[in-house]
Amino acid sequence: MKKSLMWMLTAVMSITFVALLYFQIMYLENMVKMREEQFTEGVMRSLSATAEFLERQETLYFLEQDVNIIESSLYDYNSPDGTETDFKYSVEHPDGSVTNYTLQSSQDNSKTNINLSFPSATQNIGARYGTMQEVIRSQYLYQKGLLNEVILSILRDSSTRPIMERADSVIIKNCLATELSNNGVNVPFSFALMNPRNEPVYTTDGYKHDAKGEYSISLFTNTNSTYQLSVEFPTKNTYIFKSVRFIIPSLAFTVILIVIFLYTLILAFRQKNLAEMKTDFINNMTHELKTPISTISLAGQMLNEPSIRKSQSSLSHLSEVIVDESKRLRFQVEKVLQLSVLDKTGSTLKFSEVNANSIIYNVVNTFKLKVEKQGGTLEANLDAIDADVSVDEMQFTNVIFNLLDNALKYMKEDEEPHLSITTTNISGNKLEIRVKDNGIGIKKEHARHIFEKFYRVSTGNRHDVKGFGLGLAYVKKMIDAFGGSISVESELGKGSTFIIVLPLLESRSE
């Protein structure tokens, strides 16, 4: 698959997942907002009903008081000796005549009787009807006046009534609980009664006076002194979350899909890069192997020439060429065989106690001739007093040789190579080995990948720098197997320094 197609599919899938996640989050936010609005509406309806209930209770209280007063003043007119009392009324007609009627009340132990007496039975029916209308009208006006007096007394006397009687906490709690339940708000609550100065008259347990989660309504708004009933719901957020929690699994599954998609995408790009590096490896390997094979084949053909056989110098030269190219071919084959070593490290290593300074000294003496042939120098400062480590001697030798060969391989064309290798003891009972060069250096974006298998800074079918991209991957694999670590410090154009840290024998034994 082409990289452009992969990027296009990645962009489409990314936009799709992001849009899906966005719509789910928006839906969740809208659901939470809607639940909060429903909750607020239910609470405010409950508070309004509670406020109306308290006002009706107060009206009922004053009505009962006034009714008792009126009844006692209207019917309790017995004479001191217990005789009946008559109430006489006169009605003046439009023609100037006057009709008298009597309202008699008698009281016994069980009830009060009121009798209406008219002056004469001989009065015509029209006069009686008119008299009855006048009586009813008088009673209506009288009752209306009484009602007005009751309303005025409520407005006048309610403010003087103690607030604890007007808004009892038990009555409010029971009324609120009933109204909240009727409106579908079945959550614990606490409340407080606040005076006109916004000071609490009383509070219930758990009330914190949090303005963000508080609902309030005014009580007794028709009087001079207005009180506030404030209610809080400590578990409001939990209640709202429970009402929308069915959306959380779908949101979680979407996030999981996004994570899996990203992980799959990363693996796909890694596999593509690995495939490209393997292709580079095969191309480089083909080139590296074809050159010595061609040289050996050509030398073999020349040996068949009679003129060459007669010349001892020519035979000697061809023999040297065949030997050199055979060594070069064997070295390249060993590089390829390092692939199997990378995958089967544990089963092939043979640990032994060796002195790192001695092994490095032998490698330096061997490699120094190769550096001097390039016109450069190789310095060894083996200052570590304690250099005894537990490693595979052959693999450790190859590690040092690979680092030196890598340093020489990436030297500058217009500058003589100067290599150095040092050993020192560092804290933590460890040995530090530094291999430094003055080569071309490594860019920061490449430095973190150079220890990966098949990775080469110069990719593609380029052969100005020989190699398969296995040397540093092999080095890191071996150092990890030895229980150590390797890192690189490099700056483009100023060379590189590879740092190996290995545990000493005492540290490993502990």
What proportion of the residues form beta strands (DSSP E)?
15-25%
Helix run count:
14
Specify Rg, calculated over alpha carbons.
54 Å
Q: Indicate the structural class.
A: alpha+beta
What global shape is seen? Answer: rod-shaped
Largest sheet: 5 strands, mixed
Strand line-up in the sheet with most strands: 9-11-12-14-13
Distance between the termini: 52 Å
Residue windows where pLDDT falls under 50 for at least 5 positions: 74-80, 109-118, 459-465
The SSE order reads HEEEHHHEEEEHHHHHEHEEHEEHHEEH
Please estimate the helix content: 55-70%
User: What is the averaged pLDDT score?
Assistant: 76
Number of strands: 14
The oligomerization state is single chain
Helix-strand layout with pairing:
Elements: H1 3-75, E1 85-92, E2 98-107, E3 112-117, H2 125-157, H3 163-166, H4 169-182, E4 190-194, E5 200-203, E6 214-219, E7 227-232, H5 236-244, H6 248-303, H7 306-310, H8 312-343, H9 345-348, E8 351-355, H10 356-373, E9 377-382, E10 388-392, H11 393-409, E11 418-426, E12 430-436, H12 444-447, H13 471-481, E13 485-490, E14 496-503, H14 505-509
Parallel strand pairs: 9-11
Antiparallel strand pairs: 1-2, 2-3, 4-5, 4-7, 6-7, 8-10, 11-12, 12-14, 13-14
Helix pairs in contact: 1-2, 1-4, 1-5, 1-6, 6-8, 8-13, 10-11, 11-13
Structure write-up:
Helices cover 56% and strands 18% of the residues. Residues 74-80, 109-118 and 459-465 have low confidence and may be disordered. The strands form four sheets. The chain has a five-stranded mixed β-sheet. It has 510 residues and is of the alpha+beta class.
